[in-house]
Amino acid sequence: MSILIFSLKAVPEDEADDIRALLQSHSIAFFETQASNWGISHGALWVDSESDADIARQWIDEYQQARAARARSERLQTPWWEPWQAAPGRMLMVLLGIFLVLVLTALPALLLD
Questions:
Q1: Which of 14, 71, 78, 96 falls 20 to 30 Å from 61 in CA-CA distance?
Q2: What is the pTM (predicted TM-score) of this model?
Q3: What pLDDT does residue 113 have?
Q4: Contact, 3 vs 46, CB < 8 A?
């Protein structure tokens, strides 16, 4: 019976490629199922034996911990104003939306006076 070792649901393509390369570099035989056209099932990586699954999970866990640490350090190095530079229109719309919600929330209290 096949054992699921890694679901590809909402996984970036570079991470999926890294996981595939990791399994191949450690000579772990796996196969991949593709996602369905209608989004009913998602792709995944599978192995055939429990011993391969245990080893694969260990390597995948180590890889994901290193990836998370790398992403955290990159995020901490990003200046706070970078989203403004990347998408100033989007940030302006977010601020206008926040202002609108605040005004609509305070409006009943202001009208009661």
A1: 78
A2: 0.71
A3: 67
A4: yes
